[in-house]
Amino acid sequence: MKKNFQWKMAFFMGIAMFSAMTTSCKDDDDDNKKDPTGSADIIKKIDASDTLEYNAKNKANWNAYMKVVANYLKVDATTLYNDWTEGYENGDAYAVTMKNAGKSGYTETFSSALAATEQIIAGCSDIANEVGEAKIGDPLNLWTSGKYAEGLYAVESWYSWHSRVDYSNNIESVKNAYYGSLNGQVAEQSISAQIAKVDENLDKKVKAAIKNAIDKILAIPQPFRNHIASSEAISAQEACADLKDILDKELTPALSKLSESICENINKNYVDNVVLPTYKSLKEANEDLYKSVVEFTESPSNAGFETLCEKWIASRTFWEKSEAFLFGPVADMGLDPNMDSWPLDQNAIKEILVNGDFKNLNWNGAFDEENDEIAAAQSIRGFHTLEYLIYKAGKARTIK
């Protein structure tokens, strides 16, 4: 998830009036403070305020919007895979660059094989921190400060109620990176296997921290948006922080015990058996998702919405399991926020559904995360925009 700070502020300002309406009554405010973890009445009012439906009047623009967004997802995933496998910035494929880290001609990106291995763990640390401090922490902080509507809308993937699985898949991406495989087994040429040879207890500690973070996330009652300030959510946040600390303070220093040749083998295995197959699956899943969107627009049905939700989850799973390696092309080319900006500019999305004008979804030139025009484009496309168009209150939308 790429936090879209420009549109985050606009989005929260847009719901501030509703938040004030739902909490202005003294009695309601007192009740909310008595029940900060549930606040079912607040959630009920927020749900009731979402009156947008797919119907005969708007289906042409709605269908077109889904196709445009799904096509951008397909294009972005293909671009990302090609950057790693065919060529990047008029040079070698990023896979080649990473596997040759430290060798002549490749030191500009990674000064050594060890530096590339350290980047693997840095990516793991970044997503562990993001899950704990942003994905769980942002909603939690808002909710416990009495900003209930803002807290709910800060929950990523809340349209589909898929938040907990998203977050656990993020930590699964850490596991895959550390294990050097996608099957839950420790590969011989993995960080885990090589660290175990020099510090068996540390290897066990990292594995336990990964498992604990996944378990604690999945222990949050479903859906997370209804249990933002639960004790389970707080425990999950703490588990993610513990994982990050171990990765930063213990595992990263321990990598220096590994030789350049060992790190080179780790990097090759990581690229070939973790990154490339994950991105290949993401590309194929996004192609399948786009195909299903096209089929739906040709013959809309409630069953079609159900199919789109299934395809979205399949694609989403591969994306979330790639977030431990949000470096290189995915970051430099703006492909992360293209596909995964949050929160959305929901007001702009609604306007597009009325006017059918999709030109603002695209942007050109070099990526600049401080560019407001680029941020605006990214806030009305990607996985979450499609999620909004096919889901409502945790279920597939229906034709009205």
Describe this structure in words.
The chain is an all-alpha fold and 400 residues long. It has a domain at 108-259: Up-down Bundle (A middle domain of Talin 1). The chain has 18 helices and 4 strands. A two-stranded parallel ribbon has the order 1-2. It has a two-stranded antiparallel sheet with strand order 3-4. Strand 3 and strand 4 form a beta hairpin. Helix 9 (191-198) packs across helix 10 (200-218), helix 10 (200-218) runs antiparallel to helix 11 and helix 13 packs antiparallel against helix 18 (383-390). The longest helix is centred in the C-terminal third of the chain and has 39 residues, at 260-298. It is globular and about 65 Å long.
Features of this protein?
mainly alpha, single chain, A middle domain of Talin 1, two-stranded antiparallel sheet
Q: CATH superfamily name of the domain at 108-259?
A: M75 peptidase, HXXE motif
Q: Any idea of the CATH topology of the domain at 108-259?
A: A middle domain of Talin 1
Spans of at least 5 consecutive residues with low confidence: 9-37
Sheet with most strands: strand arrangement? 1-2
Cα-atom radius of gyration: 22 Å
- What's the helical proportion of residues? 55-70%
Give the quaternary arrangement of the chains.
Answer: single chain
CATH-derived architecture of the domain at 108-259: Up-down Bundle
What is the overall number of helices? 18
Q: How widely separated are the two ends?
A: 32 Å
Major sheet = 2 strands, parallel
